UniProtKB/TrEMBL annotation:
This protein's name: GTPase Obg
Residues annotated as domain Obg: 1-158
Bilayer-spanning residue ranges: none
Organism: Clostridium tyrobutyricum DIVETGP
Entry function: An essential GTPase which binds GTP, GDP and possibly (p)ppGpp with moderate affinity, with high nucleotide exchange rates and a fairly low GTP hydrolysis rate. Plays a role in control of the cell cycle, stress response, ribosome biogenesis and in those bacteria that undergo differentiation, in morphogenesis control.
InterPro entries named among the record's database cross-references: G_OBG, GTP-bd, GTP-bd_Obg/CgtA, GTP-bd_prot_GTP1/OBG_C_sf, GTP1-OBG_CS, GTP1_OBG_dom, GTP1_OBG_dom_sf, OBG_GTPase
Keyword set, alphabetical order: Cytoplasm, GTP-binding, Hydrolase, Magnesium, Metal-binding, Nucleotide-binding
Binding site residues for GTP: 165-172, 190-194, 212-215, 282-285, 312-314
Length: 424
């Protein structure tokens, strides 16, 4: 089974919590705090693997989670970093963020890596909060939460040359003859339901990868048949070999078919329409009138297509010349990585702790990730920690914003489930 798209959920590891600890050794007076920091959470990393060919594995497992960082401990012991989670994907996999539909990365080379979810930072232990006036802090930071997101994986076949053309014109037969690939071949339309790849290794030329791209028919660019599904696989090819049936045995007109397929390429992406093409007039062994090929060639010349070969995949007529022409063109066209427009590129948001303030009668409600993290860090029932709590609110600008909103002596400030009275 060939699977070329998948949607999975990834979550990096949460950071470990900082430790609250004090030295309590017999001969060490005034030992002081010694709580260590928590370890960072593990990252989720996608790796291009040249041994993978499909995204089939992701149809069975759709959730991936990296390891959490361990908590800090006494004696200034730092927590261990969580293990990174490496996920292997086939070369040619494009990663998108589902929420924004922006492209995160194109993994097209062996060993390419991309971190799709970065682990949360470990929280600071209480030893980090000592000051000349606060020498025994009884609070520490919790670990930062890891990132989580849905991502889509889209496999775009890595091939130098793409075989295009209507069904049953002989693309699969051509592929099987010039490579060691073994595609399914039969004398009916839509025999090929998945892209097939093979390596052309002809004496006297540099080898290259060629792919039989099925499903490209009239209306493919709008979703007819399986065309839209497979058009993406042409995007990486450097040249196209456009196969037509010149025999006219099935009543098809080779020139009309050529025009229709090119229209679909143009509608899907004008860059594909501009890609260099070699036209392979196949089934020449069954051609009853030689003038048919000459007329076809002349019509193409009027449109600017001069690389036209009369071939027969069944009898191997003209195949060496066709492959040598393809190899020659490839030698002058450099391999390019996938072009990603800046508007389509995913830019990760900087992780920030924010808050909002709203007023309901004489109560001022402060909410947000900043509040959640602050309340998780301190014990509001301890006087010293409460002083630190108030200092953080002041430094963050919360108290100033409350003043600007007109808070008065005796009004109530609520942070989640914690309430206290405002005093000037």
């Amino acid at each position: 089974m060939f699977v070329d798209t998948a949607r999975i959920f990834v979550k990096s590891g949460d950071g470990g919590d900082g430790a609250i600890s004090f030295r309590r050794e017999k001969y060490v007076p005034l030992g002081g705090p010694d709580g260590g920091d928590g370890g960072d959470g593990g990252d989720v990393i996608l790796v291009a693997d040249d041994n993978s060919t499909t995204l089939l594995d992701f149809t069975y497992k759709r959730k991936y989670k990296a390891e959490r960082g361990t908590n800090g401990a006494g004696s200034k012991c730092f927590g261990k970093k969580g293990k990174d989670l490496y996920i292997k994907v086939p070369m040619g996999t494009v990663i998108r963020d589902v929420n924004t539909n922006k492209i995160m990365m194109d993994l097209s080379h062996p060993g390419d890596k991309y971190t799709v979810a970065k682990g949360g930072k470990g929280g600071k232990g209480n030893v980090r909060f000592t000051t000349p006036t606060r020498q025994a802090p009884e609070f520490a930071e919790p670990g930062m939460p890891g990132e989580e997101r849905y991502i889509s994986l889209e496999l775009k076949v890595l091939a130098d040359v793409g075989l295009i053309g209507f069904p049953n014109v002989g693309k699969s037969t051509l592929l099987s003859v010039v490579t060691k690939a073994t595609p399914k071949i039969a004398n009916y339309h839509f025999t090929t339901l998945n892209p097939n790849l093979g390596v052309v290794d002809v004496p006297g030329i540099n080898s290259f990868v060629i792919a039989d791209i099925p499903g490209i028919i009239e209306g493919a660019s709008t979703g007819t048949g399986l065309g839209l599904k497979f058009l993406r696989h042409i995007e990486r090819t450097r040249i196209l070999i456009h196969v037509v049936d010149i025999s006219q045995i099935e009543g098809r007109d080779a020139f009309s078919d050529f025009i229709k397929i090119n229209e679909e390429l143009k509608k899907y992406d004008v860059k594909l329409w501009d890609r260099p093409q070699i036209i392979a007039a196949n089934k020449a062994d069954m051609l009853y009138d030689e003038t048919v090929f000459e007329e076809f060639k002349n019509k193409l010349a009027e449109l600017g297509y001069d690389k036209v070969f009369k071939i027969s995949a069944a009898t191997k007529q003209g195949l060496n010349e066709l492959m040598k022409e393809a190899a020659g063109m490839l030698s002058n066209i450099p391999v390019k990585d996938m072009e990603i427009d800046e508007a389509d590129r995913f830019v990760p948001e900087e992780k920030r702790f924010t808050y909002t303030v709203k007023k309901e009668e004489n109560t001022y409600i402060v909410e947000g990730s900043f509040v959640d993290r602050l309340l998780a860090s301190v014990n509001v029932n301890d006087y010293n920690e409460l002083r630190y709590f108030y200092k953080v609110l002041k430094n963050k600008g919360v108290m100033e914003e409350l003043t600007n909103m007109g808070i008065k002596d005796g009004d109530i400030i609520r942070l989640n489930d914690f309430e206290f009275e405002y005093l000037l």
